[in-house]
Amino acid sequence: MGNMASLPRVLLVEDDKNVSDTLVLALKNDFVIDVVRFGKTAIYKSDLTDYDSIILDLNLPDISGIDVCINIRNRGLKAPILVLSGVSDVKSKVKLLDLGASDYLVKPFALGELQARLKALSRRNRAPAKKTASLSAFNVKLDREQLLVFRNNQLIDLRRKEFDILACLMENTNKVISRAELIASVWPEEDNLWTNALDVHINHLRDKLDKPFDEPLIHTVHGRGFKFTQLKVKQLHE
Predict the structure, then answer these.
(1) Tens digits of per-residue pLDDT, 119-178?
(2) Separation of alpha carbons 214 and 130, rounded Å
(3) Which helix or strand (DSSP H or E) is residue 4 part of?
(4) Domain definitions of the chain by residue range
(5) What does the pLDDT read at residue 238?
(6) What is the gyration radius of the CA atoms in the chain, in angstroms?
(7) How far is CA 133 from CA 86, 105, 154, 203, in A?
(8) Which of 24, 86, 172, 223 has its CA 20 to 30 A from that of 113?
(9) Band of the pLDDT at 52, cuts 50, 70, 90?
(10) Burial per residue of 80-99, b for 16 or more beta-carbon CB atoms within 10 angstroms, e otherwise
């Protein structure tokens, strides 16, 4: 167990004591856990404490988890919110992530997956990566200050999330970046998307950045994620 003072602090919002006890037991070696049963208490506690992340169940006795999420974001609080829900359809996930959730786990879930996702969210919140003003690779130039992208000196008109996805991929040129890493980078707090919706954004980006040109640069690495690379470079590196 690490030094308690150095461990990430997590607010667990869960009214089922059996569930909360199980989660605390599973997470206590890596996190300091504060447990609350009510949504209004969660809002109050999140104002008082700078949490590294929040685990939020949607079914609470007083107000809904959705209302808690909206309230926390409307107050300008940036702590990543990991939502727990029994609803698994994509539309529900997209709605929650659009409202400010950072990640989504469907019940029942493996404790190991919860631990991994929580660690990733907490690391990102504690030590955000420094972003360079401009990126360049394979005749693609990206300017963060002016939100401009060029390929072969031709302007590529991207929506903001498409721009952010490309920036994340270019920061990891020739490296595989997972779906979870992309989501954490591009949608850390609000306006988030998940699974199928992420694929839609990737497809739109490919339509604009790859299809008009002879060689694609955004490659799917099946079972692992995505890679920004030239095919000849990809063959040399794998």
Answers:
(1) 888 776 665 555 678 999 999 999 998 999 999 999 999 998 899 999 999 998 988 888
(2) 33
(3) none
(4) 4-126, 134-237
(5) 41
(6) 19
(7) 41, 34, 19, 25
(8) 172
(9) confident
(10) bbbbbbeeeeeebbbebbeb
Separation of alpha carbons 128 and 188, rounded Å: 10
Pick the CATH number of 4-126 from 3.40.50.1010, 3.40.50.2300, 2.40.50.140, 3.10.20.310: 3.40.50.2300
Whether residue 82 contacts residue 183, with contact meaning beta carbons closer than 8 Å, is answered with no
The torsion of the CA quartet 224, 230, 231, 234, rounded to 10 degrees, works out to: -50
99 has a pLDDT exceeding 90: no
CA angle 70, 183, 91 (to 5 degrees): 55
User: Where residue 1 falls among pLDDT bands split at 50, 70, 90?
Assistant: very low
Cβ contacts of 77 within 8 Å, gap of 6 or more? 46, 47
Asked whether the whole model's pTM tops 0.85, one would answer no
- Nearest residue to 8 via CA among 56, 62, 60, 51: 51
